[in-house]
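Good day; I would like, with your permission, to put a structural problem before you. I would ask you to consider whether the tokens describe a fold that such a sequence might reasonably adopt. The full record is reproduced below for your convenience:
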Amino acid sequence: MLTGKQKRFLRARANRLKPIFQVGKIGVNDNMVEQISEALEKRELIKVSILQNCMEEKDTVASELADGASAELVQIIGNNIVLYKESQENKQITLP
């Protein structure tokens, strides 16, 4: 579980990131969760965009992605979700 200070730190780092995944009409599926999990292992911090045609609620999508990838939900801002997971092999971010 992340502390408030750690979440603020990660939100600041995520501010300049571009979304690398998009959740569309079909919502969250196993393949997407697997790809997001792999991306988190490489990058530790990613942004996911939710498209306008997504049928699911933002909160539902965020919790499904976070649970499926065993990641921490840092923030939901607008139609973007920020996820963090500490990497086992490519550690780049040192949390305060």
